[in-house]
């Protein structure tokens, strides 16, 4: 590809500052920004930082720089000054040259992986006591998309999943199945394994609630005391201790039930379109974490209380004291995360670790980073918690204990059905075979779901409305998918008519404003990828893609591609269509979304 025009422009501005005002400025530090659409120009320089040393008014400083740059940089064909803002315009030939090179580049906008540092990104992290739900969908889609965006920006990523397969919550499902399961299996019940185990978790909580209520009435206990002292909870704790002691019968039940869950998870991940390079299990990592904690205790990094529990004192860091090992020797989440981080570092020797975890765990990761630092771990300063907000439905919050969560499989199936109903109603599947229809409905349904979730800034809580997400107008996945299909239809017709994009005479193209606006939006794509990677925000890719699709539709409304009598104008617009379709496909791919060629 030709050099980015802002690089040439910065160099020309640096030369102007030196020649005009004897200012030595590193061109890389010069800030440029795309010119606002309501002003004439392509890139804007704010001249105020140079006014004092130039000893001229902002307007005069801008005018002198503009004249110097236009004289020395052939790609600039004009400029205008509005107060201290200098707006540069580039020649049509520059923009058409950019388009022709971009249209020939199948990887336009993408930096080859390995140009920047490697990153381990952990996401999903499900518990094996329940199926994946809507909250997990946001987590998985965010993690997978961030990994794709980081790779497109030049990083090599390792996608990992830490399965929480041990602990008191797992023992609750196990105990309920032991007490009330009567040997039920996924095959006997006709249920997915993760759903069957989840049902027993809900069963445990329902029975525990009855016992706790009885204690409250008999002894005037408060809610927490009643739950903790209930016989069922005591049994669950006993089961956890037996598991940690590797009791043969307990471990066998645990293995059987977890395997049911893993099969269920795998089919959910497959439909969701996410994958991992490595899956870690808390049952493997918590022991290493405990070893590291005990080593820290020997070195006086941590301390032990009279009851035998191990703690870290973070009061000098502005935090409080944090439990690392319980009095009975059992591990907590922090212990497991300490072990997992070390294991990952040993496996990949990559210090930069990104954890995709909800914002309710902000404090946990703040503590974890401080603990790593006290232990002198090389990855202490490279831990990044990608904190995201909760997902709610119009009906309100979800509660796992009460079984009111929105099941991920059921939601994905509902999106497929809604996509089918909407698409058939609009008549967008005429001429499709039944298999092609089903593939299209899945593509649209999953695209709608993913886009609706990913277009929201990760830090924000969000309300997911399935009906709003499947709309062929507005800021939705189906609107962008339909735009891509429309462009692909244009390209097929061009081929049928033997109109070839590479026969363009660059000197005969005069750009209209809408054509130039679309070109400038396409030009921004590499920068958008870099910005989204730096912010770890798929929302930036999503909303850029919507703006691009909207821009193309506005252009296509006013200008014909194939019926334009001027052959060079027609070929130029064909190139414009080629690059727009490619950028839409690449950008949506970074969100994990497929785009159809026909709709």
Total helices: the number is 22
Q: Main beta sheet, described? A: 5 strands, parallel
Could you tell me the number of beta strands?
Answer: 14
From the 3D coordinates, which CATH architecture of the largest domain would you assign?
3-Layer(aba) Sandwich
Within CATH, the superfamily of the largest domain carries the name HUPs
CATH topology of the largest domain: Rossmann fold
By secondary-structure content and strand pairing, the structural class works out as: alpha/beta
Instruction: Classify the beta-strand content into a percent band.
Output: 5-15%
Explain this structure to me?
The chain has 599 residues and is of the alpha/beta class. It has three domains: 5-90, Arginyl tRNA synthetase N-terminal domain (Gyrase A, domain 2, 2-Layer Sandwich), CATH 3.30.1360; 123-287 and 332-392, 3-Layer(aba) Sandwich (Rossmann fold), CATH 3.40.50.620; 408-590, Isoleucyl-tRNA Synthetase, Domain 1. 56% of the residues lie in helices and 10% in strands. It has helices at residues 5-21, 48-54, 58-72, 92-104, 134-152, 168-180, 186-189, 193-219, 223-229, 231-244, 248-272, 282-298, 333-348, 362-375, 408-425, 434-454, 466-469, 477-496, 513-523, 525-535, 538-558, 567-590, and strands at 32-34, 43-46, 76-82, 85-90, 119-122, 157-163, 278-281, 303-304, 310-313, 321-325, 353-358, 383-388, 391-392, 462-463. Helix 1 crosses helix 3 (58-72) and helix 21 (538-558) packs antiparallel against helix 22. The longest helix has 27 residues, at 193-219. Mean pLDDT is 93; it is low at 397-403.
């Amino acid at each position: 590809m030709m050099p980015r025009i802002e690089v040439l422009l910065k160099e020309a501005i640096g030369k102007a500052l030196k020649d005009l005002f004897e200012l030595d400025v590193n061109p890389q530090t010069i800030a440029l920004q795309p010119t606002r659409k309501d002003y004439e120009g392509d890139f804007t320089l704010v001249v105020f930082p140079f006014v004092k040393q130039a000893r001229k008014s902002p307007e005069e400083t801008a005018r002198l720089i503009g004249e110097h740059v236009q004289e020395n940089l052939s790609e600039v064909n004009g400029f205008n000054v509005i107060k201290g803002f200098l707006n540069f315009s580039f020649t049509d030939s520059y923009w058409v040259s950019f388009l022709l090179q971009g249209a020939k580049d199948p990887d336009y906008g993408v930096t080859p992986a390995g140009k920047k540092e490697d990153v381990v990104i952990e996401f999903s992290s499900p518990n094996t006591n329940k199926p994946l739900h809507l909250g997990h969908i946001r987590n998985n889609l965010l993690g997978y998309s961030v990994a794709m965006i980081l790779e497109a920006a030049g990083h090599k990523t390792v996608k990992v999943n830490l399965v929480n397969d041990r602990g008191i919550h797992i023992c609750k499902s196990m105990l309920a199945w032991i007490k009330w399961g009567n040997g039920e299996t996924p095959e006997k019940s006709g249920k997915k394994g993760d759903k069957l185990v989840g049902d027993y978790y809900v069963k445990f909580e329902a029975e525990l609630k009855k016992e706790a209520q009885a204690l409250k009435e008999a002894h005037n206990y408060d809610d927490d005391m009643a739950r903790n002292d209930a016989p069922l909870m005591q049994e669950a704790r006993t089961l956890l201790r037996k598991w940690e002691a590797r009791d043969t019968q307990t471990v066998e039940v645990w293995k059987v039930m977890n395997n049911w869950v893993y099969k269920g998870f795998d089919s959910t991940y497959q439909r969701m379109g996410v994958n991992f390079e490595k899956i870690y299990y808390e049952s493997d990592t918590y022991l290493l974490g405990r070893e590291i904690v005990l080593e820290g205790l020997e070195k006086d990094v941590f301390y032990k209380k009279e009851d035998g529990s191990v703690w870290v004192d973070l009061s000098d860091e502005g935090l409080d004291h944090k439990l690392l090992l319980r009095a009975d020797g059992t591990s907590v989440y922090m212990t497991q995360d300490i072990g997992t981080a070390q294991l990952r570092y040993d496996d990949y020797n990559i210090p930069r670790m990104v954890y995709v975890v909800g914002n309710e765990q902000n404090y946990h990761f703040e503590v974890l980073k401080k603990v790593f630092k006290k232990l002198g771990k090389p990855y202490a300063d490279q831990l990044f918690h990608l904190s995201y907000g909760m997902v709610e439905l119009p009906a309100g919050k979800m509660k796992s204990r009460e079984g009111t969560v929105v099941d991920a499989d059921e939601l994905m199936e509902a999106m497929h059905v809604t996509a089918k109903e909407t698409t058939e109603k609009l008549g967008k599947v005429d001429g499709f075979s039944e298999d092609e229809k089903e593939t299209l409905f899945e593509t649209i349904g999953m695209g709608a779901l993913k886009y609706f979730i990913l277009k929201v800034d990760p830090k924000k809580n969000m309300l997911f409305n399935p009906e709003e997400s499947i709309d062929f107008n507005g800021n939705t996945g189906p609107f962008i998918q339909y735009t891509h299909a429309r462009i692909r239809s244009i390209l097929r017709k061009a081929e049928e008519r033997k109109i070839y994009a590479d026969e363009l005479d660059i000197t005969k193209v005069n750009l209209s404003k809408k054509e130039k606006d679309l070109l400038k939006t396409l030009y921004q794509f590499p920068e958008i990828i870099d910005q989204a990677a730096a912010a770890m925000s798929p929302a930036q890719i999503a909303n850029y893609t919507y703006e691009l699709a909207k821009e193309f539709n506005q252009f296509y409304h006013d200008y014909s591609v194939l019926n334009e009598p001027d052959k060079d104008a027609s070929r130029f617009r064909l190139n414009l269509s080629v690059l727009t379709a490619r950028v839409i496909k690449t950008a949506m791919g970074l969100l994990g979304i497929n785009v159809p060629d026909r709709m």
